[in-house]
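Run 3-oxoacyl-[acyl-carrier protein] reductase through structure prediction, thanks.
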Amino acid sequence: MPLDGKVAIVTGAGQGLGLAYARQLARQGACVVVNDVDGQAADDAVAAIEAAGGRAVAVVAPVGPTATAQALVTEAVSRFGRLDILVTNAGILRDAVLWKMSDDEFDAVIDVHLRGTFTTVRAAVRHMRQAGEGGRVICVGSPTGQRGNFGQTNYAAAKAGIVGMVRTWALELERAGITVNAVVPVAATAMTSTIPYFAAAVRADSRGEPVPAFFRHDLGFGTADDVTGLVAFLASDAAAAVTGQVVGVGGDRIQIWTHPEAALTAHHEGGWSYDTLAAAWPTTFAGALQQVGERFPDLPEAFRPAS
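Sure, done. The structure for 3-oxoacyl-[acyl-carrier protein] reductase is below.
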């Protein structure tokens, strides 16, 4: 198995995508530290991994605080002797439009997603660098962080920030042989179950039925297990040359997201005044303006929610 002898930490691994990542890493041979704030969910995840022949241990604590990050690393090393892989998956939602979002709603999401990713990665790479054997860091992003989404100021900021940190860390950790990548998953989870557009796919998954091809192929939307192959690959030696990348995954689809690049470059001798911009904008710049938010094709009639 490609991850034999490796040790992984997965945050937010008590359910959903995090649980799917932890079980896949264990199936590929890794010992797994399962982190979650829900003690019962964490214990159940460990039991499921062990029942399938894997090795796992639970650490029940919220991500964000430095103490939690250090506790995760300490548990991995004390129980399994090393640390090779970190998957930062833990997250929460506190959705509200900008003018209704409270300080607490903003801070809670930033603390778990952004600060939690920072503190956990920092603790992990301190150990990995000292051990001198390289490592794999996989941070979980979102389409919202790439394009924005109505009512998710806090979540969009956190997920965009994670991608910015991933690109920076890839540069800083290259000499240590530690790769850092972001995964952008799209799957039937608790977070997507309330979106009417995906209702037919989520319903099929909950019933144990195949997700319809329209969702799997056209939208790249499938099950949590569809995402786990990419995580296992990025955690393996086969991905030693892959770093600083943002990879979308869901259903039957894989996407490499581009790093931000200028969509258009234009020069005007002496600089751009208001008058020159106003004159040139409609013909020179307007055609290069970028899309915001996700735009989905019309649902086939068979999958439309009842009105």
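Strands lie at 7-10, 31-36, 56-60, 85-88, 135-140, 178-185, 246-250, 253-257.
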